[in-house]
Amino acid sequence: MKLAILIDADNIAPADADEIFATAAKLGEPITRRAFGSVAVFTGKEGWKAAVREHAIEARPQVNNIDRKNTADFALIIDAMDCLAKGRCDGFVIVSSDSDFTSLAQRLRDDGKEVYGIGDDRALQSFRKACTQFFELKKKAPAPPAPTQPASPAQPKQPAKPKQPAQPKKNAPKPKQPAQPKQAAPEPKQPASPAPQTEFQEIVAKLRERGCKTLVSLHNCLKDNLNKTDQEAGNIIASMINGNIISLSADEANKITWHKP
Asked: With 0-12 CB in 10 A as exposed, 13-18 as middle and 19+ as buried, what is 146?
């Protein structure tokens, strides 16, 4: 089966590239390999630059003409429909956890094509069920912090040799010993000021006040009210789930249960 692999590079991390193409190789022959995302996603050490070279992916960077509009998603959908019209592919692999591609998957299947989804645990049931089959990416363990070199201990200073007291003269009066000053009572220690809340804790506090009831409303709240991108919103929601701040219902509605802090 000839496949078109279309990657939402704004939504999926480049560290998942090996697993994505290993899964696709079991499904068929990838004759089209394209990744769509912002220009920044394909530059720098942390972006898709290395994965694009390693897996022979055709990078298609996009520039948003209007803020908060995801031009890369639209470009991926247009490209999928072009592939469908040309009839060169028997199936499609949509690599994203974004439920906005649900309608695309349904349209491709209506035309008799196999549609496989690959994404992480953020993907909603609507997108999963619209695909012929959905493959969930394995969670990657965070990289351990680089070990720091211990600072070399400072060499202790050699104590100065005490001066020898002068020998008193014979029949000289003995000097009076000065009165010992009273020891002042130690000042009470000031309690340490509490550490400021992290940005993540502040975001959780704002979301808890809004009391979002579904995963979609929580995602939209992060984007529209807290000015987060799709990828940032997904990462925050995943951290809240892993931190047992919220839990999701097993049904398709994806209702949210807030846990007590």
From this structure: exposed
Total number of domains constituting the chain = 2
Q: For residue 133, which of 146, 145, 123, 122 has the smallest C-alpha distance?
A: 123
- Whether 34 and 7 have beta carbons less than 8 Å apart is answered as yes
Q: What CA–CA distances, in Å, run from 173 to 27, 170, 179, 180, 215? A: 107, 9, 18, 21, 92
Q: Residue 36 carries which DSSP code?
A: E
**155 three-class SS:** coil
Of the two residues 78 and 66, the one the predictor is more confident about is 78
Choose among 60, 55, 14: nearest CA to 36. 60
pTM beyond 0.90: no
Q: What is the pLDDT of residues 197-240, one digit of tens each?
A: 688 888 888 888 888 888 778 777 888 888 888 788 788 888 88
47-65, pLDDT tens digit by residue? 898 999 999 999 998 887 6
Q: Considering 113, 136, 159, which residue would you say is the last residue of a domain?
A: 136
